[in-house]
Amino acid sequence: MKRKETLRFAIGRGSDWLGWVLVAWSEVGLCAILFGDDAWSLQKDLERRFRGLECVPVPEDDRLGQVLTFLEVPERGLDLPLDLRGTPFQLRVWEALRALPFGTTTSYGKLAAQLGMPFGARAVAAACAANPLAGVVPCHRVIGRNGKLTGYRWGTGRKAAFLARESGVWFQCL
Length: 174
Description:
Elements: E1 6-13, E2 20-25, E3 30-36, H1 39-49, E4 54-57, H2 62-72, H3 88-98, E5 106-107, H4 108-114, H5 121-129, E6 142-143, H6 156-167
Parallel strand pairs: 1-4, 5-6
Antiparallel strand pairs: 1-2, 2-3
Helix pairs in contact: 4-5
């Protein structure tokens, strides 16, 4: 009988703009970074995304701290292996997003055209919505063709905060 694959995960509280953060990893590397307003919903989201896998909570793990630091100071980078899981098209979109320079944005249409799909903006948007590695695969860098913030799986408030941090306009009220 084949052994069921196990994902380990840790949940912690990020800063006010992040909220709750779930970090999950396989034997290969990080496979999920999810944001939410409560720990229970995050665990359910993980179980839904990775149906058929055993999801085991780990109370303390360095990976959570490393990811939280990266999300707060993304220009430092994240030195953890990744385990990206998706359709071939999703993987193409996510790799193109990872190649976007820090602090820049693009539109769904431009990204689709770059991938050889000039009319594929909606497909690119769907791939962004399915991204399981928030922040690491920077879907927050994709904006509407008019330059405005559009939907973001984790909320446009988080998207705006990511973009502000990357543009150097971020400030914190004391």
